[in-house]
Amino acid sequence: MTTINKSGPRPGRGLTHLLVGGITLLIMIPVGWVLVASLKRKSEFFGSPWTLPAGLHLQNYVDAFGGAQMGRYFATSVLVTLLGLVFVLAVSVPAAYVVARYEFRGKSIVEVALLAGLFVNVNYIVVPIFLMLVDWDRALVDVFPDGFFLDNPAVLSLVYAATSIPFTIYLLSAYFRSIPEDFEEAALLDGASRFRIMTRVMLPMARPAVTTVILFNFLAYWNDFIIALTLLPGEGKTLQVGLLNLMAAQKAAADPGRLYAGMVIVIVPVLLLYALIQRRLIQGMAAGGVKG
Questions:
Q1: What is the residue range of the signal peptide feature (predicted)?
Q2: How far is CA 26 from CA 223, 228, 260, in A?
Q3: Which domain holds residue 107?
């Protein structure tokens, strides 16, 4: 019987490690450079850009949060992102469960429409959405003289959720189909309703997929610029739009430290979220790879 030696050298493994290490450096060096630059005083930027700061000049963050209103923009982004996640999960979870488990008339049309929605780039339809909201505000001008649909963070959250529903339903329904029906049959025999089965049986088992859609949708909502710039034209800007205003202001003031502090404020929530859920995300991918 021939044995296969699995402990021998693998040339591909070293190349993979080298490639992963190179990509990691490409990501970490710019992020680290921005973090270091956010702690420098204004006078330190006139020397070499690679020198370390003389001290922790946290005043840049105080100025960014207060003077540049990044704290206000941060609160708006958090509100819009969390509302968007609540809206999209409230609609997509039951819809994905129905698509995965029920047979109904027109199901094939619904599935085709969801697949077609995956190929629609929301940035291409932001102008029609804006014009539609303008028409709705004109129709309600007697009730809301200052407008309701534009400059409303809740409406922006609804737009985010509506445009990400196809992707979310597609991913969740695919995961629901991979769960054996034996669990549902056992719950039905115990007298559980369909809603209880979805919330108490299927949803906990689909936690890896839910974690994945939360991460992807959070990144899409948090990093959006075009939709937020178009639908929030007033003072209630999101963090990304506020960062653009900060960039324009700091070019005139010649104070890059405050600008880099604003960049760190934008980056940190994404890093924190990934640090919190990356273990579950990796576990979910591993479970999906060995399922069935």
A1: none
A2: 20, 29, 18
A3: 75-239
Q: Is residue 230 part of a domain?
A: yes
* CA–CA dist 33, 13 (Å, integer): 30
Q: Note whether residue 23 is domain-resident.
A: no
CA 226 to chain centre: 15
CB atoms inside a 10 Å sphere around CB 98: 17
Lowest pLDDT segment from 20-24, 102-106, 285-289? 285-289
* Structure confidence by residue, pLDDT tens digits, 253-269: 667 888 888 888 888 88
How many percent of the chain have pLDDT more than 90? 33
In angstroms, the Cα distances linking 65 to 93, 111, 188, 243, 258 are 36, 45, 53, 11, 9
> Which residues, 6+ apart, have CB-to-CB distance to 259 below 8 Å?
246, 247, 250
Specify the pTM.
Answer: 0.84
Q: Residue ranges of the alpha helices (H) in the chain?
A: 11-37, 59-65, 70-101, 107-117, 126-139, 153-178, 182-189, 194-197, 203-205, 207-222, 226-231, 239-253, 256-290
Q: Based on the structure, what is the number of domains in the chain?
A: 1
16 confidence band (pLDDT: 50, 70, 90): confident
